[in-house]
């Protein structure tokens, strides 16, 4: 009797939890945090479970971090495990989106290139609720560090080809969404270009290293939000992936005023946040920075 009663209570609260969020005026986003490894099936199952959780909580879009498909132990394995966008991994992502009727932001995944066996692309894909890819962005800023003094060598360009195009923002259920990836956040020129193209939400799916994350993660993300007066959504990898790699975590959503409105703790999970475009418009009206830019003295940042 007690077990039946407890189940009924849980079912009641879950039902009204979903009903409450579905009645909210503004759309909800689910921002996901996970710990990818070289086990692609396990990573895919995590994406599936978090997507279902996001849907049950009435989110319009679920955002996943860089390397949500896998984080391999070596450069050789990283290249060998990559698939094209027609491969089984992206096909599974499409099915997850379609079954759950939810948009998915997956960035960046390891994209194999047809005519290149030594390099891949770091690719952020956006899938709509019908299971269709509606935008694809290939990371333009690659994280390269070869410090002779410290002995630290991390060269993304050893195995990744840089993208050659800034993709225009896409109309989504939460607003005009712009795609970026991780290290891109250190380059405000990109975020200003996206804002000038109409962006309302900037995305930075990431696998930020622990050391740089502790120092710069929050500061950089809040700066991008404040200076562009956009929402910033940053899904993140967290914790220990292998013997060589640990990620900072702290997935978060920041509003156009620069306030953190949701943030993950140190585990695999999702956070929910409202995207209030009326607030965005109000902030832009009350502080009309765009009207004060001296483009007569410096150029307006727009894609070539």
UniProtKB/TrEMBL annotation:
<dbReference type="InterPro" id="IPR036526">
    <property type="entry name" value="C-N_Hydrolase_sf"/>
</dbReference>
<dbReference type="Pfam" id="PF00795">
    <property type="entry name" value="CN_hydrolase"/>
</dbReference>
<dbReference type="GO" id="GO:0047710">
    <property type="term" value="F:bis(5'-adenosyl)-triphosphatase activity"/>
</dbReference>
<dbReference type="InterPro" id="IPR001110">
    <property type="entry name" value="UPF0012_CS"/>
</dbReference>
<dbReference type="GO" id="GO:0006139">
    <property type="term" value="P:nucleobase-containing compound metabolic process"/>
</dbReference>
<keyword id="KW-0378">Hydrolase</keyword>
<dbReference type="InterPro" id="IPR003010">
    <property type="entry name" value="C-N_Hydrolase"/>
</dbReference>
<dbReference type="InterPro" id="IPR045254">
    <property type="entry name" value="Nit1/2_C-N_Hydrolase"/>
</dbReference>
<protein>
    <submittedName>
        <fullName>Nitrilase and fragile histidine triad fusion protein NitFhit isoform X1</fullName>
    </submittedName>
</protein>
<dbReference type="GO" id="GO:0016811">
    <property type="term" value="F:hydrolase activity, acting on carbon-nitrogen (but not peptide) bonds, in linear amides"/>
</dbReference>
<feature type="domain" description="CN hydrolase">
    <location>
        <begin position="27"/>
        <end position="277"/>
    </location>
</feature>
């Amino acid at each position: 009797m007690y077990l039946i009663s407890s189940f009924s209570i849980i079912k009641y609260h879950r039902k009204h939890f979903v009903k409450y969020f579905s009645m909210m005026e503004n759309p909800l986003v689910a921002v996901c945090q996970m710990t990818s490894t070289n086990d692609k099936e396990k990573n895919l199952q995590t994406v599936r479970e978090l997507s279902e959780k996001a849907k049950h909580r009435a989110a319009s879009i679920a955002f996943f971090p860089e390397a949500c498909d896998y984080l391999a132990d070596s450069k050789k394995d990283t290249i060998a495990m990559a698939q094209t966008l027609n491969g089984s991994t992206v096909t599974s992502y499409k099915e997850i989106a379609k079954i759950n009727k939810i948009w998915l932001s997956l960035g960046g995944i390891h994209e194999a290139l047809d005519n290149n066996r030594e390099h891949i692309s770091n690719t952020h894909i956006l899938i709509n609720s019908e299971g269709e890819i509606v935008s694809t962005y290939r990371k333009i800023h690659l994280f390269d560090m070869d410090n002779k003094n410290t002995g630290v060598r991390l060269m993304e360009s050893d195995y990744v080809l840089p993208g050659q195009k800034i993709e225009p923002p896409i109309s989504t259920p939460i607003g005009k969404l712009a795609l970026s990836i991780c290290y891109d956040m250190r380059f405000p020129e990109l975020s200003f270009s996206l804002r000038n193209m109409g962006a309302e939400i900037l995305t930075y799916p990431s696998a930020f290293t622990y050391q740089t994350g502790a120092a710069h993660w929050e500061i950089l993300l809040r700066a991008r939000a404040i200076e562009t007066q956009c929402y910033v959504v940053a899904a993140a990898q967290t914790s220990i992936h292998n013997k060589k790699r640990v990620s900072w975590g702290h997935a978060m959503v920041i509003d156009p005023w620069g306030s953190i409105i949701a943030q993950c703790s140190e585990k695999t999970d999702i956070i929910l946040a409202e995207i209030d475009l009326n607030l965005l418009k109000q902030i832009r009206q009350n502080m009309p920075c765009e009207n004060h830019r001296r483009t007569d003295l410096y150029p307006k940042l727009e894609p070539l």
